[in-house]
Amino acid sequence: MYREIYLKRGKEESLKRFHPWIFSGAVHHIAGDEPLKEGEVVRILTDGGDFIAVGHYQIGSIAIRVLSFQDIEINETFWENQLRSALDARMAIGIADRPQNNTYRLVHGEGDHLPGLIIDCYGQTAVMQAHSVGMHLARHEICQALLKVMEGRIEHVYYKSDTTLPFKADLGQENGFIHGGSECNVGLENGLLFQVDWLKGQKTGFFIDQRDNRALLEKYAQGRSVLNMFCYTGGFSVYAMRGGARLVHSVDSSAKAIELTNRNVEQNFPSDNRHEAFCKDAFKFLAANNHRYDLIVLDPPAFAKHRNALHNALKGYTRLNVKGFECIQPGGILFTFSCSQIVTKDHFRNAVFTAAAQAGRKVRILHQLHQPADHPINIYHPEGEYLKGLVLYVE
């Protein structure tokens, strides 16, 4: 059936707690003489030969991503069952099949017991992203299972993994439709329209994980001047405008992001002169800007993707939030975020605390924010909690 990997004595303890990763240091030996190919499905055994899991083998510090703790075959039935479970969860939380919202995450990796796989839905198009070679090799099987489970909800599947797969795997794959094909790249989120750049955009083309936090910002926007830093597609800006902001400034260093922001504002609020976008470096914009805003959003890209970058990342978050506190009016509200997985809630909160002290501002925490329910966290995999945010009242 599948090749077998034996663990060192005692290294099965985390698997008994259903953690879905096996690190390379836990592996004792691989049965057989032929070398394993990256992405192969393997059976995991204890040093005594007892079965414990089935998963995808990969080269790197994480050697196996667990697909099941049952001794089963990874086939069409497996993919259908897992995808149906993911859909059932989205139906249960009321995010799928909503008339005012056709944009949501259907599969969130370990959070949906499919480590290495992301599937986002934008209307009738699903964007699939593999973060492991195993998921890449299974993409066509997953696509067929997806179409069956979604029962007409999805007609097009776009595969976008050129930047998420290990470059050393040398898979030579390209982004593109693996089923159907659509030129309609507009998603509907809470009644607002957004261009989704699944061809060249970040993630799957849109930051779905900020949906609930954008809706919260809308409630605070009435009559305020709003600054949206690292605006990307302008999601927070569009919500602020619907919330009645009197002025909205969007800032990003990417000209492509500014173009998308302007298009999204225009398609929701044609010829509305409350909005202006700036293609500038965030720190330079904040340092040079004399305008003091009533509401500021700081939603930067991940400052740290590896643990050895944690110290510099925390210094970066502190520095950025100091500038935010300096640019906000008394009585203003600051939405500040970290999407760095290795930065914990406590790390981030301490960085913002340090920034407030350095800026000499009195600050109260109004909300502690996180990723939405369609980005679930596997209770056995706390590393899946990556998005942290604070809403602050600044005196």
What this model shows, in words?
With 395 residues, the protein is α/β, with parallel strands linked by helices. The chain has three domains: 66 residues, PUA domain (Archaeosine Trna-guanine Transglycosylase, Chain: A, domain 4, Roll); 114 residues, Transcription Regulator spoIIAA (2-Layer Sandwich); 188 residues, Rossmann fold (3-Layer(aba) Sandwich), CATH 3.40.50.150. It has ten helices and 20 strands. Strand 17, helix 9 and strand 18 form a beta-alpha-beta unit. Helix 6 packs parallel to helix 7 and helix 9 packs across helix 10. The radius of gyration is 22 Å and the shape is globular. The mean pLDDT is 93.
CATH homology-level superfamily of the largest domain: Vaccinia Virus protein VP39
| Structure annotation, total helices | 10
Strand content: 25-35%
Mean pLDDT: 93
Strand pairing plus helix content: what structural class? alpha/beta
Roughly how much helix do the residues carry, as a percent range? 25-40%
How large is the radius of gyration? 22 Å
Distance N terminus to C terminus? Answer: 65 Å
Q: Number of folding domains?
A: 3
CATH fold field value of the largest domain: Rossmann fold
> Which outline best applies?
globular
> Could you spell the SSE succession in H and E letters?
EHEEEEEHEEEHHEEEEHEHEHEHEHEHEE
Total strand segments: 20
Looking at the overall shape, the CATH architecture of the largest domain is 3-Layer(aba) Sandwich
Low-confidence stretches: none
